[in-house]
Write a structure and sequence with these properties.
By secondary structure, the chain is an alpha+beta fold. It contains 14 helices and 37 strands.
């Protein structure tokens, strides 16, 4: 430690020295004038006058005192201890309390400060004497942030390498050069084959899915092993069986491919199981779930035109401008529709379709058998009454005919989706066919001013009953130079096509949980949704309602919403927004709730994960069992800690208080002793 003190006198000049000399002479003369006073009283009064003059001199000189302290300290050591349950079972020979106490004593002897952290369910500071290893899962969610934010300290991660929530350990890339990682647990001595991960390659256009499987297999005598792969869907139907011989002689991990799996036979939730001819003690890790999103946006739209009109070009232009990455396949002039390819599309637009009786068969098929594909119907000009009646029946609507073929009706907004649209600038529409509904299953989106429906949303389908969209847009553009008709059309398509990803987005950090464990969710809500009540709804895979969780009316976009499921099984969840008659749903996220404690699935050290983390971050690794012999690898550099401060006479109010006190005291004594 180095200390320095520096005094600087500001405002020094010849005038200042002259003034000081004059004040000194006056002070001496004043002393002699007090000779008739009692000696004690004389010195008290003289001291008051002296302090007053001294304070005035300090005011004139304005001295600054600069103080600096330089300390050379060793880097702090942040220790992150994996507090998940698996750590306690990873190596029964390790006395954790002894190891931790040794580490603490070593740090004290080396003058190194240790900051202790636990991670697992969450990351938090802790007293190093209170390690319980009771977190229900392992997550490195906030570990990276902690290390990145502290560039001055060394960081020691103590873990078995098994991370079962969120980002994997080996995938972490951390911008810090002071990282150490210590592995906990034994190598696998028992024979064990397990599925580490499954990646899906969804070839939607070709109707099949490929699987890339990371398979681990640990045996004493590394050799070729006979493997049976069994793929089942959520209905326990066997989709595929495959036999193969895999050689683990060179590596304990092999990448296995299963190809050409029928996408149609897969459900959203599927399970892959590997069976071996080995005697394994742990069969729990021989199975793993994976998800195939049956409703996943695949970027293809089927645009079916029954009767071509000006609306056709207008609607296609809106799609092209607002959804530039969307591939549009246009079917018109009664071209045959290939039913087997309909599942390839993420959205179907019915443009003035059906327009004749020839189109009705296709119309019925699309609505009856493809309920999971969003559909938007646009009424076109010249729609025959008999065709309109068939459309109304499938949409659960009623028709009202008007004798006035030129009846003008204007749009009235009653839906939060269209809050930003100025309906006063959308020209009225000439209509003689009016659509109405008494069904609570159909959610009216917007009305005409005669209370008939302009557009409505049902289950996975919407319909727009404005036959002159193109001419209304042209008229609005000429009159107001605005584009509310375009925005209205876009919002309706958005409401079906991208509702799940644009308005409410739901994400979870894992698909596998134990019974009763906390499920972490991230919810992102579009600003269009206001004044709404939000819920998390839980369903089984058949769509049967299980539970509803009220989140509240005002929730921020956050990742801190948690809940639990206390019965094992397979589920999916959605976030719902309810505002009056308006209901929005998020995407679906699938869950496998197991009665098996997921933390006890792997009770050994995942050396591959630790090794990859070491290489990716240029870290130094060593085995926690040999902590004592490896602490010398922890290099603690000296850090210069500078503390400095400065102050002057004018930087404190006490200066003026003292000046007033001495002046008042002297005045009092002079008056008491009857001095001038």
């Amino acid at each position: 430690m180095v200390n320095s003190l520096k005094l600087e006198l500001l405002g020094i000049s010849i005038f200042s020295f002259i003034l000081i000399a004059v004040l000194t002479i006056i002070l001496l003369k004043y002393f002699f004038l007090l000779k008739r006073l009692d000696l004690n009283l004389k010195w008290i009064q003289f001291s008051c006058r002296s302090m007053t003059i001294l304070l005035l001199v300090i005011l004139i000189l304005d001295p600054w005192v600069n103080w600096k302290e330089i300390n050379y300290l060793k880097q702090d050591l942040n220790v992150y201890l994996d507090n998940s349950k698996s750590i306690a079972f990873a190596d029964s020979t390790i006395d954790f309390n002894s190891k931790i106490n040794f580490l603490n004593d070593w740090a004290n002897n080396e003058n190194i400060k240790i900051n202790w952290y636990l991670f697992g369910d969450s990351i938090r500071e802790f007293n190093y004497k209170e390690v319980l290893f009771n977190d229900k899962y392992s997550s490195v969610k906030d570990l990276k942030k902690n290390i990145v934010l502290d560039q001055k300290s060394n960081h020691l991660i103590v873990t078995d390498g098994h991370i079962n929530r969120g980002e994997r350990l080996e995938d972490l890339i951390i911008d810090n050069n002071n990282i150490y990682i210590s592995g906990v647990g034994n190598d696998i001595n028992d024979t064990d084959c397990y599925i580490s991960s499954i990646q899906t390659n969804d070839n939607k256009n070709k109707g099949y899915v490929d699987l890339l499987i990371s398979l681990g297999c640990i045996v004493d005598d590394k050799k070729a092993i006979n493997l049976d792969f069994i793929l089942t869907n959520s209905k326990n139907n066997i989709i595929k069986k495959d036999k193969m011989v895999v050689d683990f002689n060179k590596s304990s991990f092999q990448d296995i491919s299963l190809t050409n799996i029928s996408r149609q036979e897969l459900t959203a939730f599927n399970t892959l199981t590997v069976e071996t001819n080995l005697e394994e003690l742990n069969y729990r890790n021989n199975s793993k779930n994976f998800i195939v999103d049956k409703q996943q946006n695949n970027g293809r739209l089927l645009f079916i035109t029954g009767g071509i009109s000006a609306n056709t070009r207008f609607i296609k232009k809106v799609i092209k401008d607002k959804f530039p990455n969307l591939e549009v396949v246009h079917n018109f002039q009664n071209k045959k529709i290939d039913y087997e390819l309909l599942d390839e599309y993420s959205l179907i637009i019915l443009d003035n379709f059906p327009f004749s009786s020839k189109n009705l068969k296709d119309y019925y098929y699309i609505l009856d058998y493809h309920s999971q594909i969003p559909i938007v119907y646009f009424q076109g000009p010249g729609l025959p009454i008999e065709i309109a009646d068939n459309i109304a029946q499938k949409l659960d609507l009623n028709l009202v005919l008007s004798d006035n073929k030129n009846a003008n009706v204007g749009l009235v907004n009653n839906h939060i989706l269209f809050n930003e649209i100025d309906f006063n600038k959308i020209p009225p529409t000439n209509k003689n066919i009016f659509w109405i509904t008494d069904s609570v299953e159909n959610e009216p989106v917007t009305y005409f001013d005669n209370q008939s429906i302009a557009a409505f949303k049902g289950e996975k389908k919407s319909a727009v009953f404005i036959s002159n969209l193109a001419s209304s847009n042209l008229m609005e553009s000429n009159l107001f130079n605005t584009s509310n008709v375009v925005d209205y059309t876009y919002s309706i398509i958005l409401n079906e096509y991208e509702l799940e990803s644009k308005l409410i987005n739901l994400d979870i950090d894992s698909e596998e949980y134990s019974v009763g464990s906390l499920i972490n969710t991230c919810i992102d809500i579009n600003e269009k949704i206001i004044d709404s009540d939000f819920y998390i709804n839980i369903y089984d895979l058949e769509g049967n309602f299980y539970k509803e969780i009220l989140l509240g009316s005002k929730i921020p976009n956050d990742c801190n919403y948690t809940f639990s499921i206390n019965e094992f099984g397979k589920y999916y969840i959605q976030v719902l927004s309810k505002t009056g008659n308006s209901v929005f749903q998020s995407n679906k996220e699938y869950l496998d709730i197991s009665d098996f404690d997921i933390e006890l699935e792997f009770l050994y050290q995942n050396k591959k994960s630790i090794h990859n983390f070491k290489n990716n971050n240029d870290a130094i690794s060593f085995d926690f069992k040999n902590l004592e012999e490896n602490l010398s690898k922890v290099k603690s550099n000296l850090i210069v800690d500078v503390k400095q401060s400065s102050f002057s006479s004018l930087s404190t109010q006490y200066y003026w208080i003292l000046l007033i006190i001495f002046l008042a005291l002297e005045w009092y004594l002079r008056k008491k002793n009857k001095l001038l």
